[in-house]
Amino acid sequence: MAATHGIAWTFGDHINTEAILGSGKEENWGSAMDGVLAYYDPEFARKVKTGDFIVAGRNFGTSSGRPAGEILRQKGVKAVICESSSMIFYRNTWNIGLPVLQCPGILGKVKKGDEIEVDIEAGTVKNMKTGEVMQAEETPWILLEIYRQGGMLGWIKGRRTEYKTLEQA
Amino acid sequence: MGMTMAEKILARHSGMNQIKAGEYVTAKVDQVCIYDSFIDIEKGMLESGIEGGLTRVWDKSRVVILIDHGAPAMDKNVKMAQKHVAIRNLVKKLDLPLFFDVKAGICHQVMVDKGFILPGSFVVVPDSHTTIYGALNCGGTGIGETEMAWVLHFGELWFQVPETIKVEVSGDLKEGVTAKDIFLHISGTYGTEVAQYKSMEWVGPTIDSLSLDGRLCIANQSVELGAKFSLFKADQKTLDFVKDRAVRSYEPVQPDPDAKYEKVYEVDAAALEPLVAQPHSLEVVNPAAFYGDVKINQANIGGCANGRLEDIAWAARILKGKTVHRDVRCIVGPASWVVYKEAMQKGYLETLIDAGVIVCHPHCGPCTGMMGAMAPGEVCITATSRNFKGRMGSPEASIYLASPATVAASAIAGHIIDPREVL
Lengths: 169, 423
Fold this sequence. Notes:
The complex is a heterodimer of chains A (169) and B (423).
Chain A: E1 4-10, H1 17-21, H2 29-35, H3 44-47, E2 53-56, H4 69-74, E3 79-82, H5 87-95, E4 100-102, E5 115-119, E6 124-127, E7 133-135, H6 141-148, H7 152-159
Parallel strand pairs in A: 1-2, 2-3, 3-4
Antiparallel strand pairs in A: 1-5, 5-6, 6-7
Chain B: H1 5-14, E1 24-28, E2 31-34, H2 38-47, E3 63-65, H3 78-94, H4 107-113, E4 122-125, E5 139-142, H5 145-154, E6 156-160, E7 164-170, H6 179-190, E8 199-203, H7 205-209, H8 212-221, E9 229-232, H9 236-243, E10 263-268, E11 275-277, E12 285-287, E13 298-302, H10 303-306, H11 309-319, E14 329-333, H12 337-345, H13 348-354, E15 358-359, H14 365-368, E16 379-383, E17 398-402, H15 404-413
């Protein structure tokens, strides 16, 4: 997969899944879409464009295991690049087909509104303004493989033949 | 080479004799529990073109389903009620026998109460607080909904074997200082990423002397430190507890004497004070007395972190013969009906009601804002799991997190106090 360009939206440390989903709004996806990350950047939900990136600090996606990455994907976010990511969010988000790159030092190299180029397979992030290229930590090969097959549900489809239906069992 | 408890549990469930941190394994799962998101799993499958959605599960005796988050459907929320109908229909379609609907309580406590959580076993739940099962020497970890779809098909899932950090706790806790304060000490001292992707092992004489309720609190809260597992050794207390409720046979795991730990942390429990984490993270922690000028509007005790008998006993002990401050709503929610009934039989609930406490039915509400929502500018002190921005309603509300003892004492005073002031 080729590298893609987009605008970076920056966030700090410990952004949790409640904040990503606009806490308590999960029963109402429409208002969650309007309130995504609003606690930290009220502009984000209105102005984020398809192909943009989230650049964040430590422990992004901490807190509950609900699939908060899904709302970012639906907003058009192409990848999350963070200093570090909370465990369940990390796997969850790759599994729905939205990559999360852990790239220590990224928040010091990219500012809100900077154009960046991200190569998921290579794990590189380039700031187009400064030209600086940063290398993210290696992604577990299984997650990359799941991502290539369209996420975990795509992976299940690929193995469904091994799985008997009620009628076959 | 020696193995840690996490390595042993993953090795045993992957059919391997020897594994070490960093390796990838496919581990068979002993038990799963799924709550309100059960229907979202099927919905996601259908939306991605998996024909028929869920059509069977790998083993019906290993799938527990219940509804605990908004249970029963509340606030005239018709969407929630419809979701519950869809869950019941899906349970019928799959003919799942272990379904407790809205009637049992919070998933993690129900799993413990009913003997599904056993030493040496391996359990996944699409919920972050699944680390709680480590208190009973069971490898528990939270997974995502799409991963649960995989587990329901195949009864197994891939894992990278985590590094383990060991926490050695020694010394006698002072009166009024509890398991929750041990957790708060760790999060405040070492930060909320100290165990990111790692397994924790809790050892030492203080841990040995803790009740299972105390250990369950620490194991539950370990996910706030990033932990993948939070394991305790199975001792006589553990074995006595599971003896008559175990749904299947089990074999505890012990760490090998030469197991490899990434790091060892030592905690002097005798030096700990009742602690409080301030809004909106668990990283900034100070002695309760430091926040003495913080007035509160609400005081919560419950959830899967602190809705157990010992927690309610603390509340009852402190509130006995006292009255909740006129400006404070105090909400106590037992974690399951088993706990509720025990608390009732011991007279705790009567004591709490006499003191003006709102005792609520077992569900996740006291921790999630589904019960006792906070208005902008309001302040809550809570013995639940999290103090994050917006967790209980308005993002402009402030949530302080502390032990049940500190919360109950603060409910009387109307501001945050050290519980030893009222003991």
